[in-house]
Amino acid sequence: MIERPAARYGRDRLTAGRRRLIAIALTIATLVAGVVIAVIAFQRFDSTGVQAELGGYRLIDGETVEVTINVTRENPAEPVVCILRARSIDGDETGRREVLVGPSSESTVQVTDIVKTTKPPVTGDVYGCGTQVPSYLHQK
Fold it and tell me: For 13-27, what is each residue's pLDDT tens digit?
């Protein structure tokens, strides 16, 4: 390392070793903060108390798939909404349907519904469920 005249440039504030140590400490602190944020976000967004699992699907024709899901709720008396979808061979989502799962006495219920598609479907699945049911889906 070339020594610079201290009278002209001032003295070096940090040595190379200290700069490296600070960079490592900042990297570790950033990683820890990222993990903490991810854990908090997961706890907030995963605490809906509703889980859906694909029970199966049946291809009916070139524009229709029947999707069956098993919905488990912490509070079965509360209605929930689930999003069913269809996918084409290239992986695109080609159809989607919101389904109301009404109150029940059982914590796990099975729901089957039809999803219309814009391309020939190769699979059906469940995107997810939530407790915030839109007003247009409420039972009358």
Answer: 777 788 899 999 999
Structure-token pair, residue 68: 């069956």
Residues 6+ apart with CB under 8 A from 88: 94, 117, 119, 120, 121, 122
Quick one: what percent of the chain has pLDDT higher than 70? 90
Residues 20 and 74 in one domain: no
Residue 4 placed within a domain: no
Q: Verify that 40 and 79 share a domain, yes or no.
A: no
**Domain range for residue 34?**
11-45
Tens-digit pLDDT profile for residues 24-52 = 999 999 999 999 998 887 766 655 688 99
Q: Check residue 23 and report its DSSP letter.
A: H
DSSP 85-114: EEE-TTS-EEEEEEEEE---SSSEEEEEEE
